[in-house]
Structure formats: C-alpha cells, structure tokens
C-alpha cells in the first residue's frame, strides 16, 4: 500500500463549513479504521485548507473513499488535490 497526501482547499462559505463540520469530522473519524492515517487544518495557509494522509492501493481508491465526505457532497471543497507520497525517513517510512 502507498501513502497519499490529499489537500482540501475550502470555499469561502464559512456558514456552510460551520454547519457541515460536525458531519465532516464524524465521516473522517469513521475512516480511521481504514485508509485515513491523519487529518487536520493547515495553519497559516492563504486559503482555509486541510491536509489528509491516507494509505491505499491507488489514487482512485483514495478519491472513492473521500467522495462521501459531507464537505465534498455539499460543494464546500473548492479543490481536492491527491498525490502519492513516498516517505523515506521518519515514522511513516517505517510502515
């Protein structure tokens, strides 16, 4: 299995993000027994955004796992970038 880094860039719909956030976080928590390794907001980013780290066989598997995200379904993610990540040093390299 490979690691994938996913960057979510959110829309500027603050009210929508606040309204859907509990469902979004519950959804992500449900993935921690599966592909999701870690997730959280990016501090100091130009636009509100988050980084998610997943383990999967392919980018298609990652997008399939994330498509039901309530933020995605509500159109609150302006951009979702999925990239395979190859950790060489550190805790993730050991897995």
Automatic annotation (TrEMBL):
Taking every annotated instance into account, which residue ranges of this chain make up the domain YCII-related?
Answer: 5-86
Which InterPro entries does this chain map to? Dimeric_a/b-barrel, YCII
Name the family the entry cites: Belongs to the YciI family.
* Protein name per its UniProtKB record: YciI family protein
